[in-house]
Amino acid sequence: MRFLGVVSASAALALGAAGSAAACTVNDFSAEAACTGDKGVITVTDVDPAGVPATVTVFLENNGADVKKVGEQVVRGSREGTTITFEEDWQPNAEYRIHVKAVPYVDEDIKPNLVTPATACKKGEEEPPAPAPTPTPSDSASVPAEETGTSAPSAPKSTGTAPADTASNAPSPAGESNLAETGADSNTGLIAGIAVALVAVGGGAVFLGMRRRGTKNEG
Description:
It comes from Streptomyces fimbriatus. Keywords: Membrane, Signal, Transmembrane, Transmembrane helix. The chain has about 220 residues and is α+β, with helices and mostly antiparallel strands. The protein has helices at about 1-20, 135-140, 145-150, 175-180, 190-219, and strands spanning about 30-35, 40-45, 55-60, 65-75, 80-85, 95-100, 105-110, 115. Strands 3, 4, 6, 7 and 8 form a five-stranded antiparallel β-sheet that branches. A three-stranded antiparallel β-sheet has the order 1-2-5, with no helix packed on it.
């Protein structure tokens, strides 16, 4: 009986030790500062095969004091590892304290504190659009009229009709200005000639009449 009691006690101690060894410890957790695109993140991985729920809290440190609480999440570990992510646009060489609490196994920080890389995540730089080329005076002068889309002004087309008689519109000499104003034309000379002829004929008739009268008086 004593022998059986000793064996049972030894088995219980061995199982207890094995259970304690398989329980969650702070060594099952690791942290890393990484980049997702141009944003910074902090990841915590739990490789506890027992899958004990653990609360992970991340703090930004400055001179050994907590500056701000970045976030808090619950993780269940696995043999392959379970990773949780905290969005944090960290600065180069920044320090973070990661605390793990898994009742009744763990209630302490991951040692040492996490220090971020010396280089920040690369920001995506947008290239400004290239400015449109501006034509120089030499370029604009060398472009033919056909390429610019504008045509040279064409000469006015002839209507096919003879130009109006400009003789009547031209200014008359100074001596004929009064005749032009009264409507007289080139027939004035003809009329004057006829008048002179009539006067001559009339004079001749008068002369012949007077002569005949003198002849009768003498007889």
